[in-house]
Amino acid sequence: MLVVETVVRIRREYAAGKPIKAICRDLRLSRKVVRKAIRAEEGAFSYQRTTQPFPKIGPVRDRLVQLLTENEARPRRDRLRLTRVWDLLVQEGYDGSYDSVRRYAARWREETKTAPGDGGTAFVPLMFAPGEAFQFDFSHEDVEVAGQPMRVKAAHVRLCASRAVYVRVYPRETQEMVFDAHARAFAFFGGVPTRGIYDNMKTAVDAVFVGKQRVFNRRFLLMADHYMFEPTACTPAAGWEKGQVENQVQTSRERFFKPRLRFASLEELNGWLEAECRRWARLHPHPEQREITLAQALEAERPALQAILAPFDGFHEVEHAVTGTCLITFDRNRYSVMARAAKRTVQVRAYADRIVVRCAGEVVAEHVRSFGRGRTIYDPWHYLPVLARKPGSLRNGAPFQDWTLPPALTRLRKKLGRGDEADRRFVRVLAAVLVDGLDEVDDAVREALDAGAASDEVILNILARCREPPAPQPITTCEALVLRHPPIADCARYDLLRGPRAAA
Fold first, then answer.
1. Is 3.40.50.300 the CATH number for 133-304?
2. How far apart are the C-alpha atoms of 204 and 219, rounded to whole Å?
3. Which residues does residue 5 pair with via DSSP β-bridges, in sequence order?
4. Domain map of the chain by residue range?
5. Which of 41, 197, 207, 273 has the fewest CB atoms within 10 Å distance of its CB?
6. Is the pTM of this model over 0.85?
């Protein structure tokens, strides 16, 4: 194809009277090309192929169309690159180039995307009043936590009016994580809008019917009722109905999660994300009101938000049986409970970051939630009543390995030494915690050690003395009520009343 400069030169030299033969010789072009350039309209000379033969694509065209159609039906995140489509064709016997596949795919998209003359799918711009609505969505992001690669679930919340954003990551996308994300987002924004816009996520929607009718999860409705907002679910596969948070997902991935974040724990990562959300709001203008920042727009919207009376107690509760070793199995991990709950049925309340175990309305255990597999989390104090009856288990009991005790009790154990008798004496001191409490026992141990008496008997004596009621305070009598002759306890005075013979 000739460039514009060559066409211009041919036309200029021909207009100056130069023969076509000489132009062909100087430019090394054929007569056909030169004549076409001369006859063409000004600036209109270009190569246009009227037909595309597809000599290589022809045998695999149907298969390529099938792959392209299936690829377009996939979610955007799961779509294959054209290089991967070409590789699949090569594996099936295609010997053509990637460029041929690329050109055919581009033409296929243009032909199938819209009807001729149509400019594409049109949308109506949306506008929300302050405090009217927020949008919620989850995304999957890759981070590095404690030196290990990890795929986390990022909860995205966005106010529709001020466009303020909040992002927090979780190990999973369960219902308790959804509750925690709402509570933290509302605390971050300083209030609650009157409507929430969601997709049809399973943690919120139990059934999808025709139109906008949905059956929301009962626990999710309790949360919405607590915060006094109306949940609204989008039409399936209609992401534009919550386009603000969909755009936030893409923006956050580019701004926050690239390059890959590296933190020691999820708590540190979430603290950094919250600080970045605040910084982002301070530095970026509102997309429609360019004269103010997102932070200023949030401050203007905050009076229109509903007040937060109290955070929602968002948990997922299940029942479990306690084994004879005072353990329950929850989410592929084992947790210890108090000894009095052994071989009983307990209720496990799972929160986003912890689990709480209740038995007969009483809390019998509380642990930081573990998201690994096959771990056993002990609290040695749960086994103290059993240890008091079986002091020999102190040496080899699994809960008591690497037991972190208060400094005074650690010093006492070193003073007592090792052995059966030393373990028995130390357990006697530990058993006093069930009666007096840990703080009192720790103070008594410290007092005994400061006095140079590393003895269980001395420590128990100090605790018994502390349990005695305090001595009554002396009564102060005013001067007007003081007797002039106070009574004297002297039995000899009665002998004087009997006469001189009384003494004999």
1. no
2. 8
3. none
4. 4-39, 58-113, 133-304, 316-377, 384-467
5. 41
6. no
